[in-house]
Amino acid sequence: MSNDDKVRNESKIKERIWKIRDYIQDLNNIKEGIIHFLVSRKELDDVTKDLWISDVKGLYYNTVSAWEMLKSASKGNLNFLDKSKNFLHNARSLLAKVVSEIKFFKEELVLNLITETENSFENCWSAFYNEFNILTPEIKSTKHIERVIKVSDSEYHLPCSVCGKISVECKIGYGRFDEHESLVYSGITHSRSLRKNLANKLFKILKKEDLSEVHSFMKDYLCYEGIDAYCPECDKIYCWEHYNARVEYDDGFYDCTCGECPAGHLRMIDD
Ligand SMILES: [Zn+2]
Ligand SMILES: [Zn+2]
Questions:
Q1: Which residues hold their Cβ within 5 A of ligand 2, which is an ion?
Q2: What pLDDT does residue 184 have?
Q3: What's the pLDDT tens digit per position in 162-202?
Q4: Would you tell me the crossing angle of helices 79-102 and 46-74 to the nearest 10 degrees?
């Protein structure tokens, strides 16, 4: 690319990123609309009202932060790209939460409000992802992504099969609330501690790089869903982003997280 092309390209990206602000402005108007709606409803106690209003604000401000980070990423600092994605994914989770909350009101108006909110966020989401795809450095097809990374005799990592990001860690150590050393599992939706004496069995399976057997092990000892980052049909690991993980809520309470892999296999990954 010549220098002129590069400058032209950069100014185009800048222009498009400024344009995303229009979508965010639209989301801002919707945020105000929902807050007005919540404030004017008498059947809700003040505490719940405040919580739900802060969720609506969270949806909006996470999107704004995603935009700030994207702006920095477009200037060449790619560390901000991941941060921008994190904020946008947080916003999407809050959107699901807000929708589950306003469904509490059985009014016709609510359905319109939900559609409007979802469409507005969808516009932001696709505009952001358009830039993410342009800014994400190509993963060289020659770069081989390992199935299992052995960090040490007592620590193994499972990288995302698409981008190589570490998505699961299994190691001997201390979980957040552990008094004793345990076998600590950290996946894309949660971390949990298992009995330390299970480690030998698990590490033997990891050494064989048999992900489906690791998954069965986790189904037996961790939770029914097994490895949250694993698609059994693909026999592959995916990070939060590439598993397209979505949090679902019921009346504002966490319900579950579902993942859809790049091949379209859908499953519940956390309950
Ligand atoms: Zn990934
Ligand atoms: Zn799959």
A1: 231, 233-234, 261, 263, 265
A2: 96
A3: 999 999 999 999 988 888 999 999 999 999 999 999 999 99
A4: 150
Tell how far the Cα of 259 is from the centroid of ligand 2, in angstroms: 9
The encoded tokens of residue 222 equal 């961790």
Average pLDDT score over the chain:
93
In a domain, 193, yes or no: yes
Question: Does residue 94 share a domain with residue 153?
Answer: no
Backbone φ and ψ for 159, nearest 5 degrees, come out as: -85, 155
* 120 plus 160 within the same structural domain: no
Considering the domain boundaries, does residue 96 fall inside one?
A: yes
Q: What is the mean pLDDT of residues 40-52?
A: 92
Q: Are residues 196 and 258 in the same domain?
A: yes
| Structure-token match 């590490």, residue found | 203
Residue numbers of the domain that contains 65: 3-135
d(Cα 192, Cα 227) in Å, to the nearest integer? 11
Same domain, 163 and 250: yes
* Average pLDDT of the residues in 243-271: 95
Centroid of ligand 2 to alpha carbon of 245 (angstroms): 13
3-state secondary structure 33-93: HHHHHHHHCCCCCHHHHHHHHHHHHHHHHHHHHHHHHHHHHHCCCCHHHHHHHHHHHHHHH
Write down the pLDDT at residue 176.
Answer: 86
Residue range 131-140, pLDDT digits in tens = 999 888 766 5
CA of 160 to the centre of ligand 1 (A): 5
- Model confidence at 9, pLDDT cuts 50, 70, 90, reads confident
Residue 81 reports pLDDT greater than 80? yes
Nearest ligand by distance to the CA of 240: 1
Expressed in angstroms and rounded, the spacing between residue 162 Cα and the centre of ligand 1 is: 5
